[in-house]
Amino acid sequence: MSHTLILTHPGSSHKDEFLACCVLLAVKPAPIVRREPAASDLDDPAITVVDVGGRHEPELGNFDHHQFPADHPPMCSLSLVLQHLGLYEDALAFCDWLEPVEWIDTRGPQETSRWLGIGRDTLAKLNSPVDVTLLRRFASASRLDQGDTLWQIMRWIGDDLVAYLKSLRKRLDYIGEICEFWDIDTDSGSFKILYLPRIDPLPEEPSSGLGRYLERHPNGKNVIGLAYPDRRSRGYGLSRHNDHPRLDFTRIGQCDDVHFAHARGFVAKTSATDPERLRELLRLSWIGE
Predict the structure, then answer these.
(1) 55 Cα distance to chain centroid
(2) By CB atoms within 10 Å of each CB, which of 120, 135, 162, 222 scores lowest?
(3) How many C-beta atoms surround the C-beta of residue 280 within 10 A?
């Protein structure tokens, strides 16, 4: 995208166009102007028009959803921008807040509450001064330029969101290339573990992304524990997945090669690196029938 101006509607502000503008700033910094677009704005590919104008034409930089029919799947201006950038599917999968933003903007709080299975009052309790202040300040501005405090905050938000999606996708692809699924057999049954071997250079957070990877993998629902390189030592971390009750790592706390086992049993750290020893420690942590 090569816009020289980002244009969105005046008046009250919502999360969808606010976040869409944040993402656009991450792609290419530009001034943000809040006014109704002219026909010339909509026809100018150098002006990105967000959440206003009644046209969805990514090739011209127009990202409005208000002209969609009432039965159209919930899609807001942020959805359309992310879609154009090739980030929407990952955002939908890994940003749990995105669908509620789409629903609130296109269906309203009442239908959104029913869709979430919560009361309308519960939905209101999820707001914070962060939401209120940023949107109110954005609504009161007619133009934001580089150097303005709010413009810089929006750039940070966009940078972090885009970096998160791109780095997470890279991380998930990396996990998929090297991970192994172990079946641990015991006298009272078997269980499945996701094992991540140590590869140099070691990521800053070796266990990062494992949960998200399992959410999308066909074997994910059967995995009850994780074994991954410990970033603080040459050994491994062992942990429950989704706090599965059949693994209790206090059962291996007295082993010579286990230097930490949490008192609540959900995680342990070991100096062991041999896969067979890791399998044995996991087997010992299993709570039988």
Answers:
(1) 28
(2) 120
(3) 15
| Alpha-carbon distances, residue 61 vs 114, 133, 143, 241 (angstroms) | 34, 28, 19, 43
Domains of the chain are 5-169 (no CATH), 179-285 (3.10.310)
Q: How far apart are CA 167 and CA 153, in angstroms?
A: 21
114 phi and psi, to 5 degrees? -65, -40
Under DSSP, the state recorded for 37 is P
- The pTM of the full predicted model, rounded to 2 decimals, is 0.82
Residues shown for the chain: 289
CB 10 within 8 A of CB 142: yes
Pairwise CA distance, residues 23 & 152, whole Å: 12
Q: Rounded CA gap, 168 and 171, in Å? A: 5
The alpha carbon of residue 277 and the mean position of all alpha carbons in its chain are separated, in whole angstroms, by: 34
Contact (CB, 8 A) for 11 and 139: yes
Rounded Cα distance, 269 and 239, in Å: 9
Host H or E run for residue 48: strand 47-50
- DSSP-based three-state secondary structure for 285: helix
**In sequence order, what are the residues at sequence separation of 6 or more whose Cβ sits closer than 8 angstroms to the Cβ of residue 91?**
82, 98, 161, 165
Residues facing 107 on adjacent strands: none
First-to-last C-alpha distance (Å) of the chain:
59
The CA–CA distances, whole Å, from 245 to 53, 195, 262, 278 equal 53, 19, 14, 19
Non-local CB neighbours of 153 within 8 Å, separated by 6+ positions: 134
Structural tokens at position 201: 């250079």
